[in-house]
Each structure stands twice: as structure tokens, then as C-alpha cells.
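User: Run a structure prediction on this.
Assistant: Running it now.
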Amino acid sequence: MNMTCSRPFGTILVTITLLLNFIALSQAQQKKNHTNKQAVVGDTLLRSFQSPPDSAKSRVYWFWIYNRVDKAGIKRDLEEFKAKGISGVNLICNGGYAGKEPLPGVKFLGEEWRELFRYAVKEANRLHIEIGFNLAGGWTMMGPSVTKDNAMKKVVFSKLEASGSVKFDRALPQPEVVEGYYHDIMVQAFPVPDSNKQINPKEIIDITDKLDANGYLKWNVPAGKWVILRTGYTLTGHPWSKWKAYPEGDTFKGGEGYEIDYLSRAALDDYFAHLGKTIIAEAGKAGGHLDYLWSDSWECGKLTWTQDFALQFSKFRGYDLKQYMPALAGYTVINTELSARFRDDFDRTIQDCIAENFYGHFEELCHKHGLKVGNEAGGPNDIPPQDVLKNFGHSDIVAGEFWVNGTRNAPGGYNKNRRERLNLKQTSTAAHVYGKRQAEAEAFTEQEKDGTHWSLGPGDLKPYANDAFCEGINRLMLHAATCQPPSDGKPGYEYCAGQHFTPNITWWEQSPAFFSYLSRCQYMLQQGKFVGDVCFYLGERPPLLAPPKYLISTLGPGYDCDYTNPEVLLTRMSVKNGRIVLPDGMSYTLLVLQNCVSPSAEIANEVGSYQSLSVSSIPSNAMSLPVIKKIRELINMGATVVGPPPVMSAELKNYPECDVQVRKIAAEIWGDLDGKTHTERRLGKGRIIWGKTPREILLADGVKPDFSFNGQAEKSDEFDYIHRKSGETDIYFVINRSNQQQTRDFTFRVSGKQPEIWDALTGNAVIAKAYHHDDATTTLSLQLDAFSSYFIVFRKPVAAIAQGAATRNFPKLEPLAEFDGSWTASFDPKWGGPAKTVFPELISWTKRREEGIKYYSGTATYTKTFDLYKYKKGERIFLDLGNVKDVAEIRLNGKKLGVLWCAPWRVEITDAIKQRYNVLQVNVINLWANRVVHDLSLPKEKRLTQTHDVFRFDMLNVNTPLLESGLLGPVKILSATD
């Protein structure tokens, strides 16, 4: 179907009772209003889809770079955000700058800054714009208030060998010391082990009390050869564990400092007392409020110790870590299996401390002050072991991120690499299993040479948004908008990454078309609950990370899934009517004991390398006693659980009895199953299955794929989908992941309901007239343009055998005319273009010789006068622009017909067309990059743009390739017939 890509914001009201031919084709286009307004008013879902509430509109990262802001810029930004369809700002102060030198700004937390902050809060509250604050002068929590004692720390060791019987009286080797900071934890001695470094914990002697404050050890060494192991802690020394001011780092002068110790509640308390309470108090002085506090993405490296870590370990693991500490220094305590189990317990404690002492305590502090809490709690890179789902369980706003790097040279029009959206499925699955309605993502971040700033238009961004939505994301935090004084000019001085969603961009006045598309998608994807047939249990081996959405070989195409961690399994899962259910309404057919990030080595490696962690693709054969007891309980209650039995406990607590108990319960559950000849048995009301794939089980149980299409087996990633269910309404979101128009038959696992086709680009919704029901499914044909999407909505009952009366769901388009010959065009002389020129043929501006056109950025108006004798009254007529770089506004005979920003660049002109003397005007808006790149080659006094003299990391430079721009055509007139 050739649907519109957009149209004037909020102008289209249509209803499900529209005739088939209302679905037209392209973007912003459906000028005819075939609306039954009374029906729309009574249809809450449709009405809110067409005009989404603020809760479905995108937020935006609002950067105060170097705190270079004034009241005029604050007011302008907030009013423009509100007007264009952005409903919230997340204020981040830092120095992550795109240029070469720092810019002057007000002093962070100084009186002038506080006045500006209060003004921003007051303005946001006045405009009913949600406002949050990232609690840092960078991304995560860092700054000058953080002492070394409250900074990130790691375990370090030194060792030497000594022979007895002698009196040892000298300094021990000093373990690593970072920035002069070091404290001892313990000193241990044990007999020198054999070649495999295996030691007996009963022979370990604690001689910590023999060490003085200067590192001297006085100890009577027993007979034999001994290892003296000195264990201490120091700062991590990671480059991002201590922020520096730009250009060495990404904060401003006065914002420098350490990252806090994320294992320590005391460190967070101290930080919150310095910054959090200050920010909250200033908001109160403004007579307003913040909506949430934020902790952004973890990019500060790993940490392995805090002052009370030994006590934390005992609390979480139930035993003392001292006798096993040599295992961290490379020794084997008892045997390799138990040493590995201890190291897992050590990492689990890091996970638990991060989840509870940081994210959990941050949640407590925010809620105590009447604020929500938001976190990018899973990376994106170089993280310590984390149970990211558990982190998100302490978040009101759960957020991942996705990038658009590699777009320019990507085959097929955009970069499909999973790495660009690696933690989106993880974020959405956390929202599902912890009962959060929204799953957010930092959206469209970019940082690469020759393409970061003002280089991608809304049509370039669309396929990435569609992918994110199919991963389960249902609200975007646009990355990003830099606040700056209007006097800085255009395009202005920017943050070092992302896109730029500010009043300074060339297509800002047309941006509601793009934002409306996102809002409509987000509204629909916030309805009801996600539909997934399988929940994969990640197990207990750290780190606990969920993979991106990919084709799971054992599940196959057409089914979707979630992931669960031990906490959700133990505290939130139960069984109802044979389904695994959660308190908030989520449910699954199968619980699969995957016990790893992914059984695919490729996926596991990709997740691990991105996070700088070792992630195994080999399923664990260990399970803790509480977990296997809960598995038994779920099966007895009626659950179907899939997977092999564990052979030992996942923990070292109560060893070796814990292993005995795990094997005993495993034998009770799995009985005589061998995973080959005997693969299924009943237990209580449920089943345990071992040796069959989830797909085999679902098909055998009559659970068909939820979504399928012709050719799915050969090319499963040509299209993607996500399914949500709200009461009796089923909502499918279907996307074309290619840059080609495609027509396919799609089958949905719904029967007895009338399919409706809803277009988020226009707000149009129609009843499908060509479909058929078959054995609990509905099949209908969809015509999807490049990177286009539809919502397929099932909500009104029809007979199970009902069939659509028509043969197709989309009008047939026939060419009436193709424009040839010249066009006149006018550019804005203010930006170097000619007031009037002629295009003998439609080509990119970059192919023209005139400097004012070749390097032009902004709006140019194309004009064409034509006759159209062929069309007949009553015939529906469309204008097809072919291709546009990057946004177009159309007027025909003085009548505004809308904004186009993506394929198929088509608009209905039925109500505006005449047989003679038609005047067509097309405003075409390109991006800033071409003019900025050219200006970099000019003396400063000859430049038209005001921005950085040099771009960091060569993101834009004099050699950056120019972007195609303008009306590219071919331009045609089409007639539509049903």
C-alpha cells in the first residue's frame, strides 16, 4: 500500500468506517477528509492513536553544554518542544562538546546557574512539559564532591614465598596503587601449592593482624614453604572512573571528579546529599517540581570492591569469603569447580550490590522526595557483572539505547547490525517482567567520522525507530537537543554525538510530521501487554544479560519471547490455567531453562564483547536450591518447563549438601527422562520436557506462529513484528525492513475478528476488505513501501468463517502523466542561494556548479505550471515526487497538501487539481551538513553558518562527502482505482 508518510499535525480525523479506497497510499497525503467525526469521538483507541496523549510522545535529552545557556534559549526550546510534539526533557549538564575548544558558560551550581535552572523548571511546569535531571556533571554519578573513599575501587594482590621456621620481619610487596590510594583487606598465608596451584582452605592462616600500618609483616613462619598473599583495594584507574574537563574529558571545568562507588549505599547517600538535595531544593524554590532524577549509561568500567564488601558478601551469599579469596588471585581453592563457583558468587555479589545498593537505594531516595527514578541501567559498554533486569526492577523509567552509526554506506539503506540496538530487547523484557508500562530508549545516537552532525534526515532515522519498536521499545528519548542562546546563530554549537532535535535544524518547522509518527507508534505499543509465547530463564551464572532480538534457532520465526532472571522467577512467577503468569498480567506458554545469554556463540560473543565481559554460549548445568524448588512448584501448579536437569548447585553455600539436595529434587522432577528416547513427563498439573525444541512443543500443542508471511523461511528478517493485546483487542505492528516496496500475504494468530489497517504516518485507519480466516488465523495482503509500517488491529467480532469481499486492500495506481522539462526554483539568498534559477532536469543540488546551490542548506521552492486534461471528475488523483532529500511541503494551486519526509513521497491532490493552469509548488528542505562542510574551507568572515571551527573526531571536515539534496524525482501524477 502506498500510504502517506506524514501530513499536517493533528489535521486528519478518520474512522474505521471509512471505505477501502480511503487507505491511500503515501504520506501526509490524504487530503480528503472522509471522516465520521462522531464515530471517532466515541472510539477512544482510534482518537488517541490519531492525537496521542503526552505520555505517548517522545522525550528529549536536553544538554546544557558547558552550561552555556540563557533564559531566551530555555524559553525558546521548551515552547518549541511543546509546539512540535515533544512532551518531556531530560536535562544533562556536561562538556561533551563537538568542537575543539571549551565554550564559555555559567558556573555549574553557581548563583547564575541556579537562577537559570529554576527558570527552566518554572517554564517546563508552566508548559506542562515533563522535566527530569541527570544527577551528574557528566553521564553517571561523578563530580568534585566524590572523595577517594567514595570512588570506584578494585581488589589488588601481591604475593611472595617464604620458608620456615624463621621470623619474618620486613615489608610485604605493595599491591597496585592508583593515585596514592590503597587500603589493606587481609593478609593470608598457605603452603606453597603444587604445580596446579591447588590449596586447602583449612591450611590458610589469617595473619592480617601481623601487618602494621606501614606494610611491615612480623610473623613466625611455620616449617615448610609458604605463600604470603596480601590483598587490598585501590581505585579502579579506569579512564572514565575519574572525569576530566574538556578536552581531556567530557565535563566542564569545575565538574571534574570521580565516579561514585556503585557498590556502596554510603557513597550514594553522600553524593545525593551534595547534588540531589541541592537540585530538589532549587526546583522547590522555583515554585515547581522535577518529575524524575536520572542516571545515564554506564561507561565507567568495572569495580570489584567496596569497604564493606565482605559483609555484603556474607549477607547475599550466606558464607564468609575469606578462605576463598586466593581464588581471585589465580589459585585453586579445593578444586577448579569450587573455585569457579566462588568466583561466580563473588560476581553475583557485585551484581546484587549494584542492583540494591545503587539502583535500589537510588529508587528509595527519589521516591522519598516524591520523584520518579530513571536509569539506563544496562551499559552500554565496559560494565562489571550485572543482573540488568534486576537493576531495571528498581527503575520507574527503564531505558536502553540505539545508535545509527554506519547509515551512509550501509547496504539496503540502513545498518541492520544488532550491535546498534544491542540492549533494546533487554530493556523491553525488563519492562514486561517487572510490570513497567513503558520501555524507553535513547534514540538515534551517532558518533562517527564524516557523518555525525546534521547528516541524517527523518527518513534516514525511520528504519531504526521501527526496529526499536519491534524490539519492544515504546517510548523514545530523542538524542539530543543542545540548549544555547539564540544569539549563537545557526546551526549552533552542539553536543558531540547524536542527532539534533532543536529549533536550529533546517526541518524544525516540518518536524511535527516525524514526531507524530513516533507518537502514534508509541501510543499503540503502550497498550495492553506484550504477547510472547516463551520466557527464557537466563540462569544464575553472571553476568545476567539478555540478548537483542534475533532468530532463535530452537524457536524459529514467527514467535516472540522474553527473558527472566532468578528474582522474577522466585518472587513474581506463578501459574494460571497452564500458563506462567506474572502479577501485572504478562503470561507465557513455556518456561525454557536456557541458563545462558544465548545458545548461539555469535550472539553470546557479541553481547559479551560489547560489554567487555566474558559471556558463555554453553548453558550452565548448575541451579541453586531456591530456584530448583521454585521450578518444581511451578510445574506442579501446571507450568510447562523445558530443558535439561541441573547436576549441581549454582552456589557454594552449604556445600556439599547443596549439591545433594539439587540432584535429589532434579531426580524428582526429571525422573527417567534422558532427553533422547524419553523426553516428556507429567508432574502434578504440569510437564517437564527435555530434548524437544520450544518450536516443536508449541506446534505440537497447537500453538501456531503468531506472525508469518510468504518467504519467511528463506528471509525471516525481511519483515518484523511485535504483538500486544489489550483486553479483547489484538494489536500487531508490522514493518518492512527493506528499502523496496513489497507486497506480501501476512498471517496473524487471530481469528473471528475483523482486521483493520492503521497507518501511524497519517492517522488513517480502514477496515481490511480482502482477508480470510483459516484455522485460528487471519491472512491478509499488505503493500508496504520502503521502510514502511502498519498496525493491524483486531477488535470487532466477525464470523469465524468470514472472508473479505474485495480482492485487494490497496488501490491500484495508474500513471496519468510524468513531468518532464524544466522547473523554476528559488533559494534563500541569506544562505547563499540564488533568488531564482532553473533546473532543466531534476538533479541533486550537489551536482550543480553554482556554489550557492551546490553547498546550499535550507529550503528551496520548486515551481511547475501544468495542465491535466486526462483526469475525470470523481477520480482520485495523486502526486508522486519520486525521491526527495530530505523533507518536502506541497502546495497546489495555493492549497497546502502536507509534509512528506519518507517514501513513497506521494500526496493526494484530488481536491486541488484542475484541468488547466495548475501551479505546483514544492518546498524542499535538506540538511545543514553541506553548508557547514563547505564553510569549514572558507575564512571565518565568509562563512554563513555559525558553529564549530573544527569538529571533534573529524565528525565533519572539509573532506566530508556532500549529501544528496533537493527534489530528485521523477515526478508523476497517478490515478487510483479500487
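Confidence is low (pLDDT under 50) at residues 1-35.
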